[in-house]
Amino acid sequence: MSTERFPVRQRGVTLIELILFIVIISIALAGIITMMNLATRGSTDPMRAKQALIIAEGVLEEVEQAKFSYCDPADPNAGEPDAIKGSAANCAIPENWGQAAPEPTGANNGRPFDNVNDYVSAAATAVAAFNNSAGMLADATGRAMDVSGYSVRLTIQPAQLNGIGDTGSAADTEVLRITVQVDFDGQTLVLDGYRTRYAPYSL
Question: CA 112, CA 91: separation in Å to the nearest integer?
Fold first, then answer.
């Protein structure tokens, strides 16, 4: 009986198959890395975003809590409805954009101001209303905030809300739209709020 042995055929990959495998894996890895870079570049550090939101909410609340009277508090008739009759036209010192007179100076740099429109110098004009005299972002007491890389701009303009108010540029309106913009790390966060004359004679 013959015991003829057949050579065992070895299996493996050819050089061409190996090269094709490397090329395909390289293309796939390049695509994954590109997508990861795009996702990383477009994402925001959650802590930084939360800090920006806290800053925006804080300064918006400060402005919204300011008074919105027809007359400057220095006007002797400021708190008298009969003397004012629902308009700044009868005020000796009407409230207007900016400060009618220098606000009290001191550690708080005049903030918080006695009227909403004291925070800006003109309607629909963005200003760095929350910087102290050193140009640093500060809280309502004038103390520099212990944050870096944030800038805040405030815009106040007349607005219409459910048929009340107007969209001109006069400060003698019934509704103001308050916009706070916080810029940080190449990102922008914007908060809007409205202030109405619900207590125009309250000083």
Answer: 23
The contacts of residue 19 (CB under 8 Å, 6+ apart) are none
Would you say 200 and 171 are in contact if contact means Cβ atoms under 8 Å apart?
Answer: no
Burial class (CB in 10 A: 0-12, 13-18, 19+), 39: exposed
Collapsed DSSP state (helix, strand, coil) of residue 7: coil
CB 193 within 8 Å of CB 60: yes
Nearest to 199 by CA among 107, 69, 109: 69
Q: Which of 166, 157, 148 is nearest to 55 (CA)?
A: 148
φ, ψ of residue 46 in degrees (nearest 5): -55, -35
Q: What does the alpha-carbon distance between residue 177 and residue 86 come to, in Å, rounded to a whole number?
A: 20
> Which of 185, 186, 166 lies closest to 176 in space, CA to CA?
166
Q: What is the per-residue pLDDT across 30-71, written as a single tens digit (0 to 9) for each? A: 989 888 877 666 566 788 999 999 999 999 999 999 999 888
pLDDT (tens digit, 9 = 90+) per residue, 104-122?
Answer: 544 445 788 889 999 999 9
